[in-house]
Design a protein that fits this description.
This protein has 265 residues and is mainly α. The chain has a domain of 177 residues. The chain contains 9 helices and 4 strands. It has a two-stranded antiparallel ribbon with strand order 1-2. It has a two-stranded antiparallel sheet with strand order 3-4.
């Protein structure tokens, strides 16, 4: 599954898409407040989901945007395995970064975080949120930027836009790294299934930790050797996973060769 872009768009327009998202978020948040669905005029999970869905629908249906959704699903087993390993490794790194870099957290704009207070909140934040964000930020923004700029530039800029979109300083660095990881897989495979899977895997892991009554992985595991070993393994597996991802061919295989009695097979 992917979104095709014929002409792409500029970096300036990519930021304008983010402005459109904020405008839609304000409109939906105000509507929820006026209808007494939410007690305060603040962005929440469901207004944000509706905003993402609205922007995606507009980009796919407006003739001036030249975007087209391709629903063909292509999942490579090797890429899926690598994505799972790297997603869980990034979750460990994300947890330690939040502890080491104490940026302020604004609960009033905590609309893109995992919630487990109800079944609808779990469905929305763990499953719908990753799907919509990947379609918008990787499927549309990264895809469009890659038509105009070198892939590395498009990847970094789209990741910055995604990191800023959450409006919560404490998640800027973790979300930037998540966007970089999802973007790497998207540019390699040109398919959104693996980025959505990576995003969901991180949210599922966070929901599991929260269900155990802890705010993070460090609190769940304590400060013993297990947590240190997991952090160390994560920092090793992430670059190793990137190395292997770069060598996955179009058939979804790693070109590994062996020597038997002097011959390569």
């Amino acid at each position: 599954m992917r979104v095709n872009s014929q002409n792409g768009f500029s970096l300036k327009y990519a930021w304008f898409v983010l402005v459109k998202l904020y405008i839609a978020l304000f409109i939906f948040s105000a509507t929820f407040f006026l209808l007494f669905i939410t007690p305060a005029l603040a962005p929440g999970l469901w207004p944000y989901l509706l905003s993402c869905a609205g922007i995606i629908l507009y980009m796919l249906t407006a003739q001036s945007e030249n975007f087209r959704l391709v629903t063909k699903v292509s999942i490579q087993p090797i890429a899926l395995l690598l994505s799972l390993i790297m997603a869980l490794s990034l979750f460990v790194v994300r947890d330690i970064l939040i502890k080491l870099i104490p940026l302020p957290s604004f609960e009033a704009v905590n609309f893109s975080s995992v919630r487990i207070d109800s079944v609808p909140a779990i469905i929305g934040s763990v499953f719908l949120l990753p799907l919509l964000e990947e379609v918008l930020f990787r499927g549309i923004i990264l895809e469009a930027l890659s038509k105009k700029y070198p892939p590395s530039f498009a990847l970094v800029q789209s990741s910055v836009i995604y990191a800023v979109a959450t409006l919560n300083p404490v998640y800027i660095i973790p979300n930037f790294l998540l966007a970089m990881l999802c973007g790497l897989f998207y540019l390699k495979l040109r398919d959104l299934c693996i980025p959505v899977f990576i995003h969901m895997a991180g949210h599922i892991a966070m929901a599991f930790v929260m269900a155990k009554g802890h705010a993070g992985l460090a609190e769940l595991l304590g400060k013993g050797g297990l947590h240190f070993s997991m952090v160390l393994a994560a920092f090793v597996l992430l670059p190793l996973g990137y190395y292997l991802l770069e060598r996955v061919n179009e058939a979804g295989r790693l070109p590994v060769t062996f020597r038997i009695r002097g011959r390569r097979v």
